Amino acid sequence: MSEFDLIQRYFTRATPSAILGVGDDAALLKVRDGMELAVSTDMLVSGTHFFPDADPLLLGHKTLAVNLSDLAAMGATPRWATLALSLPSVDAVWLEQFSRGFFLLAEQHGVELIGGDTTHGPLNLSVTIMGEVPKGRALRRDGASMDDDIWVSGMLGEAALALAHQQGRIVLPQHIFAACATHLHQPQPRVALGLALRGIANSAIDISDGLLADLGHIFGRSRVGAEIDYIAIPAVGFNEGKGDVVQHCVLAGGDDYELCFTAPATCRGEIEKISVTLALPLTRIGKIVEGNGCTVRAADGGIMQIKEQGYDHFA
């Protein structure tokens, strides 16, 4: 099968919202009046971001999900994506399942695949995602204000716990591992939450490298400090007696793809209503303070000493 046959068979779909989609040297797009274009790229590398024998259906989902999470953090509506694949071989069964997982999530969020590239080499997956946000309404990292509440969506640490279990660093009960593994392999991008937070949140980021690392981008760009209560961080089944491995997973494990955002205390009622409407837990875990770092407080009020802040590819 040639490169172009592969693209035609597995990755060519109708693109009604694009002027020109797959099949030419470039796609042609038109952003709607009054909108700005939000663009993000993420790469998943075999052996670094996923196991070489990962289920291709779930991998197709995750490849797009991690990009959708970036748009969610910006409060942008997903529209288009490009996909670049480096493949060790042309495996029809693998490609069928991967593309199915990718397009199932794409259809759920109204994303059209408008182009990309394929080449022979080690398994690497790269998506560029594009979305629209009303002019001046994007959620950003640099908008946190003094005394803002700090919120997170969902539960943190579960994906990292599943990985720790697979690596033998912790042993989870089977039912907990199964739930955590779902979060690792099928993260749910919080697009609806991002849209609902426009005009409410002062800043936002998706949690991909770990809570402390990603929150650090907010208070670093906003030139403020942060204080969070460890015991307030939602982590299923581990809110009491969290051990060292669990503590690392919750604070720095990464792969959560939940949103961390800040908002004025006066918006608590609105945020609680959003939580009910979306059937999504939204938890207040701390506040923005003066300074330029993050303090994590234990249940007794003492300051916790945290060795690792989050994942860094080159650390």
Description:
With 315 residues, the chain is of the alpha+beta class. It has 2 domains: 3-134, 60s Ribosomal Protein L30, Chain: A, CATH 3.30.1330.10; 149-297, PurM-like C-terminal domain (Phosphoribosyl-aminoimidazole Synthetase, Chain A, domain 2). It is 33% helix and 24% strand. The protein is built from 9 helices and 10 strands. A 6-stranded mixed sheet has the order 6-8-5-9-7-10, with helices on both faces. The protein has a 4-stranded mixed sheet with strand order 1-4-2-3. Helix 3 (92-108) links the parallel strand 2 (77-87) and strand 3 (112-120). The longest helix has 19 residues, at 56-74. The chain is globular and about 65 Å long. The termini are far apart. The relative contact order is 0.16. The mean pLDDT is 92.
Could you give the topology of this structure?
Layout lengths: L2 H9 L23 E11 L10 H19 L2 E11 L4 H17 L3 E9 L3 E11 L14 E5 L4 H9 L7 H12 L5 H6 L6 E5 L3 H12 L2 E5 L14 H9 L5 E6 L4 H11 L3 E8 L4 E4 L18
Parallel strand pairs: 2-3, 7-10
Antiparallel strand pairs: 1-4, 2-4, 5-8, 5-9, 6-8, 7-9
